[in-house]
Amino acid sequence: MKLLTKEIRKKLPPLYAQEDKGGKTVVHAKFFTPDSNWTWYATEFDGEDTFFGLVEGFEKELGYFSLKELESVRGSLGLPIERDLYFKPKTLEEIAPELFNEVKK
Q1: How many domains does the chain have?
Q2: Domain span at 4
Q3: How many CB atoms lie within 10 A of CB 54?
Q4: Does a structural domain hold residue 97?
Q5: Is the pTM of the predicted complex or chain greater than 0.90?
Q6: Which one, of 30, 80, 19, lies nearest residue 54 by Cα?
Q7: Handedness of CA 64, 88, 79, 49 (dihedral sign)
Q8: How far is 14 from 47, CA to CA, in rounded Å?
Q9: Distance CA 19, CA 81 (A)
Q10: Which are the contacts of 104, defined by CB distance < 8 A and separation ≥ 6?
Q11: Is 100 inside any structural domain?
Q12: Taking all residues of the chain, what is their mean pLDDT, rounded to a whole number?
């Protein structure tokens, strides 16, 4: 499976284009390991190899991840990372509201 199609490349904003949006940042692609609990949500792409987005693994955190690494990694059963073919764009706060909820006093 091709992880990054031309169509998705066109939709992904360049790095730092959404940095001031916080939880309103739009996620354009979802990648996952079918044989473990890791998921990557891409919000931006440098056009070459580097994504920025939400990574869910041991914890949920925002950060950078590499297309080359996604293409080379295998899960515990040896399965490659896949792209969620049915994923529709969502905001980060829709996917991980706990990262954006303000503590109210």
Answers
A1: 1
A2: 1-15+28-84
A3: 21
A4: no
A5: yes
A6: 30
A7: negative
A8: 7
A9: 26
A10: none
A11: no
A12: 94
CB 18 within 8 A of CB 100: no
10-26 as b/e, with b when 16 or more CB fall inside 10 Å?
A: eebeebeebeeeeeebb
83 beta partners? 31
The residue type at 80:
P
Please answer whether residues 54 and 60 qualify as being in contact, where contact means their C-beta atoms are separated by less than 8 angstroms: yes
Task: Determine the pLDDT at residue 105.
Answer: 47
Q: Is residue 90 part of a domain?
A: no
Measured between alpha carbons, how far is 74 from 99 in angstroms, rounded to an integer?
Answer: 28
User: Rounded to an integer, what is the distance from CA 83 to the centroid of its chain?
Assistant: 10
- CA 66 – CA 10 distance, rounded (Å): 17
Please give the Cα distance from 21 to 92 (Å, whole number): 10
Query: What does residue 6 show for φ and ψ, rounded to 5 degrees?
Result: -60, -40
What confidence tens digit (pLDDT) does each residue in 37-73 have? 999 999 999 999 999 999 999 999 999 999 999 999 9
- Alpha-helix residue ranges (DSSP H) falling in 20-82: 67-72
